[in-house]
């Protein structure tokens, strides 16, 4: 039980400072309290600020055709006497000879006079406090009348009207839930197809249990989606709302039916299996659906300009196809790979031809220098192991011939691969055919003779014939 206070109390008299009649009353106070202390509850007697106007101010600012000065003075006197308690003011308002006044009429007249006085009198404070005070004295008579009429109509409703209003409220909630469900479905569809959010504004209405009596029905999809079975939307196990989408693991795909395969063949639809992964799908990792014309193959950066030039000479545009079908895109990709191989081969051939010209120029300079020196003493660089036998080729000439032969063999092999890829329309596969084997045998025989590994000499005429044969085959 609560313990009662055992402190001593005294019976004393007091006067309320908020009263002007000096009325003396008595009450119990704790012993030891200062007798001259102010009454503690006097601070709650907050007086309403009342405005007083002069005759000149009324004539200049406050005149109204519906109100006289005497009736306005009577209104301000009642407001000051009853501390702006408007129900009391309206009950005591009995102006003789005046029209019938409603509470809204009294409020509108009083607050309009106060606002006019504040606007036209000098203000000691800042403009912000003045604007706040004017705003606090704002009164809209028409709105107040409409509000009271609406409250009166609500209080006078019949039971049938209340039941109809409840039914309309429930129907409104169902429509809002359907709109939220549509927004979530649209977000999920755009996230699946494009990897972006739809950007629809969220509805501020909270979820409630009004959809407990509704049953979910499967939506029929238009177009080719009607041919396949629509998987049910996964929902959270801990939520009672059936319209909350849970991004769980994708369900296993069912085998494609015969009707679906026939539909795909008729409408040229090629379905691809999505890679199975256990990672969570994010916007950055998700590959959205795209048009095939937006993903045309592009040539590699190092040889892009040369490949574009080659395709331009052929009258083919690699940036746009009139009919970007699956087969046309595959052929364009093969063409780009073949053109890239051709450009690389052309670079190799140009390099080989440049090396040949440089070697021929060096040999010509050495021959002209040897003719001028005459019978100069041979050096170990001029002979092979000190033997200057007739019919042997100079060591430098042998190395030049070996290098030229190897370069021609590599260029011929690359050109052969490029030509076969162009004729077959397939990417080049590096393999050796009989033509390459014949060239390799000639290279080995010629190189082996130069190094002294074969006994059959190779005459200069045979080398010249071999070079002409290389040139004829590479055209």
What's the SSE blueprint?
Layout: E1 9-15, E2 24-30, H1 55-62, H2 69-81, H3 86-92, H4 103-120, H5 127-136, H6 141-155, H7 159-193, H8 258-266, H9 304-314, H10 326-373, H11 395-424, H12 434-450, H13 460-474
Antiparallel strand pairs: 1-2
Helix pairs in contact: 9-10, 10-11, 11-12, 11-13
Could you walk me through the main structural features you see in this protein, from its secondary elements to its overall organization?
It is a single chain. The protein is an all-alpha fold and about 475 residues long. It contains 13 helices and 2 strands; from the N terminus they run E-E-H-H-H-H-H-H-H-H-H-H-H-H-H. The chain has helices spanning about 55-60, 70-80, 85-90, 105-120, 125-135, 140-155, 160-195, 260-265, 305-315, 325-375, 395-425, 435-450, 460-475, and strands spanning about 10-15, 25-30. Strands 1-2 form a two-stranded antiparallel sheet. Strand 1 (about 10-15) and strand 2 (about 25-30) form a beta hairpin.
Query: What average pLDDT do the residues reach?
Result: 72
Alpha-carbon distance between the termini?
118 Å
From the helix content, strand content and strand pairing, which structural class follows? mainly alpha
The percent range for helix content is 40-55%
Radius of gyration: 53 Å
Strand order of the largest sheet: 1-2
Q: What's the count of strands?
A: 2
For the biggest sheet, the summary is: 2 strands, antiparallel
Poorly predicted tracts of residues:
200-253, 376-398, 425-436, 449-467
What is the number of helical segments per DSSP (H or I, 4+ residues)? 13
Fraction in beta strands: under 5%
Shape: elongated
Order of helices and strands: EEHHHHHHHHHHHHH
